[in-house]
Protein: BRISC and BRCA1-A complex member 2
Organism: Erythranthe guttata
Amino acid sequence: MAIDTVPPLINAQLTYLITHSPFPVKVEQMWSGSKNPRLLDRFTLVIPYCLDYIRWDVIYNAMYPLAAPDVIFGPDDESFQPYFGGNEKSSKNGLADWNSKDPARLLALILELRAAYVAYQRRRIGEVDDERLKFEISTLVSREGIEMYMSSINDKPEEVKFAVPLLDIDLNKLVAGSTWRHPQKIRLQVIFPVGKKYSTPPAPRLKLISSAELKALYSIEDFKLPSWLEGMCTAEYLIIVEEMLESQIKNAVSSIETRRKLIMALAPIFGRPIEADPVFCRKATFLASSGVFTFLVHFSLSLQFPKQPPAIILQSSQHFNSYGVPIKSPNLTEYPWSPRWEPSKMADRIFDFLVDESLNFKKYCGQLIQ
């Protein structure tokens, strides 16, 4: 049976792009434009932009693998022509001196095009006849990394989105030992209506968005955005949001040590954990026994610890269901607890609770396998 393959030179560039891009790029689909339908030489890239995604088709030719690819932009970006100035094609671009044997060339091309796309959207938005929007842009232009996007209906501007990076802090360096591959960011999405007249301009739509991996440290779902006051501009609002965020991020970093202290306090009672999260200290697993009954104790510590007690799941090492899967207890969260206790007392009270709970769990396991 024939297998679809990506030509080696194309595959090397695509692999390098996926593994070295400073932002997560995904391949949505691959197909063939060759006479040999098994040679996949075309694909769609999903590229993050302005807290959303843009999709670009990259078109190689498997019959001429040394040739540079074509890039087809989205249907809403027909006027985006990054390599044309007037009527003459620019020679200073990533396609002019294409080297198919250099695996980094596709990544360099996509970064170059994305930077041009940022400038293109800024230029479009700057041409919109909207005084409020022009003022907002003037107050934000000095901030690095800001992205903008204008959506239209029937070729008329409808709204403008801003994606504003928050906190001039390298979040990756705040957590010792973190394995985050991409820079962690928190951004504020600000959406303004355009082309409409209001006696009192309405507040923009606001949403706080973070990198997915940052949730291991801090959950932005727990952050309550402050109210937008009448007459306020985005630059003023950002100062308030950043002050609140910085304080909460510092607390989130310090809470790692608080969780670590509980895990360390459990060790003298349960023994050394057989598995633990050494970076964020969110999980730990211990081997325990009650007489001849041995079982695992899984601890899960939320970001609200110590306000919330650890969730505990018991897992038998001797009882299995009909599919051969070890039997586990439901999530245990209702037991004596106070966030004001010292870690050693927390550990002692957990142990006291599990002395009785392990007997109930053993009985539960026996009933399930009967």
